[in-house]
């Protein structure tokens, strides 16, 4: 092996082309964690499909009238139950049949999107921000701060999620979307807090955090620039999975008669209503359930894709 | 090859420093860890100093407290469980242990920087090396993203990473071990600190790359006239680059010496044992010497000289009295400059 002289670039990195060093800054676009993640996501079919579905759901939630002219709340008793789905008439009021009060199931599925999606996304955002912050502070500072926050978290964790939400909801006379969001978020943040705390404790001990400190990084920089990007992956996965859980929880609460109430329309209310009539008319139950499943799946797929894209090693 | 004009940016402190004495001086430093099993006395009175432009090699077996001392100097010890019950760490004559957290943070990276053993785990896996290098300039000097990037590329050139501009947006795992360590060196070097602490910078690398990285470090140190504390347990590496050596055992300095003299005539039985355990070409085929026994349990450091259970020369006094680190003299009684030993029988060891 020829002797590596002190001025020549060391030849150990065989895979690197030995281009002369240059300082052409503009030659390459600046890359960042999110920039690179985005490049990766654009090539991922799971992401494209889930993102398209989610965009569609959002459009439905925002302007449901674009998709149907029928009213979700006004029914014609003439259609009572007997209106079986007419699957060839895509998009018409009778497409997915009618429910017990003669309301178009299709219209109800479309109009129910808003409440369900708002509940799912809002609760997820709330618990992720709140739980994530609590978990990060507890995990990073440790000691008595951790003891205090973990104790606080465990008190909430001790309350059964649905039972707790029911108790909270009992306190309100009016069960609007906001109230349901509050009840679910109030009890739901503990899981994210625990996941974040655990991830922060692991990452905090990583050598690169000590190295960053040794090179003069302050608390904020270490917490938000070095630790946060490394704990995002598990948090995103848990958050997107729980988004589906919250939509389902809203459905369960409605089923128990404690969730949203008329005139609000939600998949949860229809699933609960449909369940009691399952022997007579399955379509009342099936279609909102399918929408719920698709929504949950879309968000889980999105979370998985984002998580992979955030890990440079899987790129 | 160098793309940053160094002459313009040499900190004034280096030339117009009114402080006399060593750049860094550690005095009687103690560090202990309060654990469930008891108090781990990791550092028990370390004394060493390093000057600008000088390289101090700190040697010693695993667990002798080399890294903990370095962490105490950097101010990155985990406290709790760590505690510094006594000692001083003087940087340019000022005791860093008495400074505020903010003052200490301003020294880190700017005045004193550190290079770690495992460069892969010392770099953030989700940030590009360009971002991490540029961060030094953005945070400490408030440079714009673009300027920081240009400087980052300059640094990468300086530590001889081929095609720096093309690789600036790569992630740490995309580099080989040697290249990663160069990046760590570049980060430590970014703000032209006065002192660099390198904690086993080449241990994780294979032998040929080790030499290249050591050469680079030594070259940059000369160029910037930095002090360098090189922590290692490889006596072979030390001979080429170090000016002086401090040998650690059980959290204490047991011998200090200018580099070449210690190889010729060690003044402490532990150093003697270390030297005898280096493989040598002229002894090929012979069984390699190893110091008998294990390093002491730091929960229960032996009384007297901590080395006594393993020392072939140990006498009763070694089991009762801690030998202080004292200057040693030649056979004719003249003081040997820079040489100290913490052994009751240094004379017998050195001259016997
Ligand atoms: N956070 C800690 N808690 C408890 N004990 C610790 C902690 N950090 C270090 N120690 C103890 O301090 C002692 C000295 O460790 P140190 O890392 O300084 O050794 P070292 O000389 O650097 O060894 P090596 O050559 O293996 O790196 C060890 O016995 C170790 O167990
Ligand atoms: S003081 Fe005694 S035990 Fe310690 S190194 Fe010297 S001779 Fe050995
Ligand atoms: Mg060490």
Written description of the protein model:
Chain A has helices spanning 33-42, 45-62, 105-141, 143-158, 161-170, 177-204, 207-214, 219-255, 267-275, 283-310. Chain A is mainly alpha-helical and 315 residues long. Chain A has a single domain, classed as MetI-like (MetI-like fold, Orthogonal Bundle), CATH 1.10.3720.10. In chain A, helix 3 runs parallel beside helix 6. The longest helix of chain A is centred in the middle third of the chain and has 37 residues, at 105-141. The two termini of chain A are 34 Å apart. The model of chain A is unreliable at 1-30 (pLDDT under 50). Residues 1-16 of chain B have low confidence and may be disordered. In chain B, a hairpin with a 2-residue loop joins strand 1 (24-35) and strand 2 (38-50). Chain B is an alpha/beta fold and 352 residues long. The interface between A and B is large, with 48 and 63 residues. The structure holds adenosine-5'-triphosphate, iron/sulfur cluster and magnesium ion. Iron/sulfur cluster (SF4) binds at residues 268-269, 305, 307-308, 311, 313-314, 318, 323, 343-345 of chain B.
Average pLDDT level of chain B: 82
Percentage beta strand of chain A: under 5%
Q: What is the N-to-C succession of helices and strands of chain B? A: HHEEEHEEEHEHHHHHEHEHEEHHHEEH
Report the CATH superfamily of chain A: MetI-like
Main interface by residue count: A-B, 48 and 63 residues
* Strands of chain B, count: 13
Sheet of most strands of chain B: 8 strands, mixed
**Fraction of residues in H or I helices of chain A:** 55-70%
Going by CATH, the architecture of chain A would be Orthogonal Bundle
Mean pLDDT of chain A: 79
Q: Give me the count of strands of chain A.
A: 0
How would you describe the oligomerization state of the chains in this entry?
Answer: heterodimer
The DSSP helix count of chain B reads 15
